[in-house]
Amino acid sequence: MVTGIVARRKGGQVLGVDHRDDSEPWILGNALLAAALDHAGDLAGLVREVIERAPAGWRAYPLGDRIEDPRAAPRSLEVDGEGLDVEWLYVFDVEGRTLEVWFDPTGPTLEPALFTVTFDPQGRASTPLFRQPPPESPTAKVVGGWKGDNRLEKAFRARMADALDADPARIGRFVEAAIAGAIRASTWTAFEEEAPEQRLRERLGLPPPPVPRLWDDERRLWLMRPFGPEVRRGWEVAIEDFRVRYPVADERADDDLGEDYVLLRSDGAFASLPPLLQLLPAFLDDGADAPTMPLLRAGVAAAVGDGIDYEIQDGRLYMFKAVVEAVATPQRQIALADARAYDADTRVGETLGWDLPPYGGLWSLLSWLRSRQLSARPAGAG
Q1: What is the pLDDT of residue 101?
Q2: pLDDT tens string 90-112
Q3: Cα torsion for 280, 283, 287, 293, to the nearest 10°?
Q4: Is the CB of residue 88 less than 8 Å from the CB of residue 20?
Q5: CA 195, CA 82: separation in Å to the nearest integer?
Q6: Three-class DSSP labels, 166-201
């Protein structure tokens, strides 16, 4: 896929070659700025290297990965017309000693360039470095009450409440402690600048990019899927001194229901949060074998498992399914052929049990906590 074009003005024409891989200014653009320094300001020599000696174009100019095709030639571009179906267009003017950069150069007329860089005789650019813009903090709207709810989420909350009604206040405190502890113990990573930007910045002796804040003054952050859809609306729940936001039910796909790994997002930084129920024992005072853990696991199983048979034995949570010829209820039944993969001697009518792993169900736990916090507010509170 062609993502950019590198071209030059020559007479009344614009001649260019394709660039396939990442063509953003902070990648390809910085590589071209560094090449101008390498050529000591000889823009004619730079153009020969990038365009005339690579007529078939580049897979990745920053890596020196040139496409070889002896039949190819730079193509003439109708810059003021239609048909440049690329994201980025770079046009050198050797005589004017400029490089113009356009984003999305399509349409009947070409808009003014996004960047116009001028080079001095030594190749130093008026814009010395193209900085990658930091990722925007999530801007989803936080809604009150249960706006964005759905029937499935309501059923999950009800089943969760039923499973955890033995000591909900105590379990709630433990869950909050576990989530807050996991957030504080997470390894936060700044969104890193691309290699061409880093190399050029170090070459020019420019300061490093600012260190992002992990959360704002109100300690707000987002929990979201690593590669999920953009979140437009979210709910907020207080977790000790954090204000944790997460997608409303209507904006979660079905495969979110048992999601294990989620991403903590804040201003320019992120961290991965492992499965919550694997983290709980590390942050609970009574440990994994005490009564709290099985209750929590049973609550998540009841909510996410939607009707599975389970029971607690010796401090562990077990799931049971009846062996049948044809499965009508997957949550409670298993086909004979599948059952014999676990026990070759099993027969129809018997029951198989498994130790239920501590999988996710994080959304359900957050909504259960939030429902308790909402119910505890005085009448008329937001």
Answers
A1: 94
A2: 999 999 999 999 988 765 456 78
A3: -30
A4: no
A5: 33
A6: CCHHHHHHHHHHHHHHHHHHCCCEECCCCHHHHHHH
What backbone torsions phi and psi does residue 375 show, to the nearest 5 degrees? -70, -20
3-state secondary structure 11-28: CCEEEEEEECCCCCHHHH
Altogether, the residues listed in the chain come to a count of 382
The rounded radius of gyration (Å) of the Cα atoms in the chain is 29
- For the chain, domain boundaries: 4-118, 141-285+362-376, 292-355
CA distance 52 to 151: 63
Hey, which residues does 242 pair with through a beta bridge?
Answer: 239
The pLDDT of residue 358: 46
**Higher pLDDT among residues 3 and 290, named by residue:** 3
Task: Please name the residues in contact with 103: beta carbons below 8 A apart, sequence gap of 6 or more.
Answer: 87, 88, 114
Span of 56-70, 124-138, 214-228, 278-292 with lowest mean pLDDT: 278-292
DSSP 8-state class, residue 210: P
How much is the average pLDDT of 233-244?
Answer: 92
The residues that bridge with 93 in the sheet, in sequence order, are: 98
Assess if CATH 3.30.1480.10 describes domain 292-355.
yes
